[in-house]
Amino acid sequence: MPWLQLRIDSSRDQAPIVETALLENGSLAVTLEDNADQPIFEPELGETPLWQETRVTGLFDADVNTAQIRADIAKYFQRGTGKMLDSANWHLLEDKDWEREWMSHYHPIQCADNLWICPSWTSPPNPNAVNLMLDPGLAFGTGTHPTTFLCLKWLAEQAVEGKTVTDYGCGSGILGIAALLLGASKATGVDIDPQALLATRDNVQRNALQAEQFPVFFPDACPREPVDIVLANILAGPLVELAPTLGKLLKPGAKLCLSGVLNTQQQSIVAAYESSIDIDSVETKDEWICITGTAKP
Fold first, then answer.
1. What is the pTM of this model?
2. How many structural domains comprise the chain?
3. Tell me: the pLDDT tens digits for 123-166?
4. In which domain, by residue range, is 155 found?
């Protein structure tokens, strides 16, 4: 069936109040989005990122009394947000199979001559290449983001045959699985999100790999044995905090690949890791970078 959306233009400070007003007046779901093309690249730890100009949208059944809901919300807004109701507009949301709608926009991605990332519901464009079949589910990591692409491109250029790998912040498992398909002997996945560990396990199975080839752990249970390659596509803040941890996971001469970093954050990452690695390269895609290095003896 069709749905109705009530869209209200708000501010960073007032958006939580608008969200509460919608929920208390029958909204089935509320979304908040940028209303002025103001990207937020990396929030502070524990911060809920909101834009200075935020659009708040409530989802309602199509048969609701729109006039009554607007009147009820108007009473709520009299507590200090009345002006924003002038921007409130109802919109009909077409009924669609939203899962298939999303799937239709996700296509195979070529990360290198010999490496493709393919949605699990499509056929690989090049059956003779290394084709990583991926269903990201609720976990981050599809290959579409510049940081993931840069890591995969670098990985495809490495001699990974027989190497051991740790994918720290594994998300969907995309980097560790790519390493295994490229010839690594074993990968270890680490993440703080239970959904990420579940998604990684599912994608390991989807790529006809054995579970013991890619065990996954929460950080406090992560094996401490040094490995040949460490991959960490997270964010700059956590990467700085993790520098001692990741440094201890590197064998002498091991390779480290760090991403999830804006080009303006390069110096903070280099400063955090320069005692444990020699920087090999810094690759850029859009405003994002991938920093790679070799562990010092």
1. 0.71
2. 2
3. 888 999 999 998 766 556 666 789 999 999 999 999 999 999 99
4. 146-295
